[in-house]
Amino acid sequence: SRRSFLASAGAGLALSGATEASWAQAPQTADAPALLQPWAAAASGALQGAAQNVVKQLVLHPFDTVKTRIQAKTETSRGELFRDVYRGLLPTLVSGTPGSSVFFAAKEAATAALLGRGAVAPLPTLGGVVAGVLSAKAVKTPFDVAETKAMASVSAEGDWDGSFAKVRDVFEKEGFTGLYRGYGANVLYKLPADAAKFLAYEALRGSPLGA
Question: Which of 51, 134, 166, 202 gets the most CB atoms within 10 Å of its CB?
Fold first, then answer.
């Protein structure tokens, strides 16, 4: 949703970029702090991604819950509409946090590696985004496939709980191909949006507005 995209962009951009800034802006003197190696950047990015997703879901989940209840068009009183607005939060965190963590880990590691090799802007940012999207979608696509199939099911067994059991069920029935159905389309959808988002952030950070 638009709200989720904007929140993800704001939280993610606020938490990311420290690695690239340290490589690009740290003074090259004997007193300058040691630059992060790719493995350290990956560890930092993983923590950033996990924190970004948790904060985003804590803020947006109540809104998404209320929106879903309104769109269901059932007879719901105002009290019921706003009751248990955090219901379903845990499955959302279980399915979304690993992908977010992997995205920022891969992005920061690739960015650090490119900067260490002397790549000039915007190549470190673009390379980091490409690595992040490819890695994150490799982790998240199986969960997305399992969630979609569970939501399409009318049986009680089809309820989505964000667990690995649902992913395993899809793998056992459809194999590896079924588990990654839509991976290419997801990457093609996500890559331009994330590239534009992070390039815009870098441009604003280097402008007087971002000073």
Answer: 166
Alpha carbon distance 120, 101 (integer Å): 26
Pick 155 or 160 by higher pLDDT. Answer: 160
| CA dihedral sign, ordered 138, 144, 149, 155 | positive
Residue 67, amino acid: K
Task: Say how far apart CA 19 and CA 40 lie, in whole Å.
Answer: 9
Q: What is the dihedral of CA 40, 49, 99, 130, to 10 degrees?
A: -70
Is pTM, for the whole model, over 0.90? no
Q: b/e map of 151-187 (b: 16 or more CB within 10 Å)?
A: eeeeeeeeebebeeebbeebbeeeeeeebbbebeebb
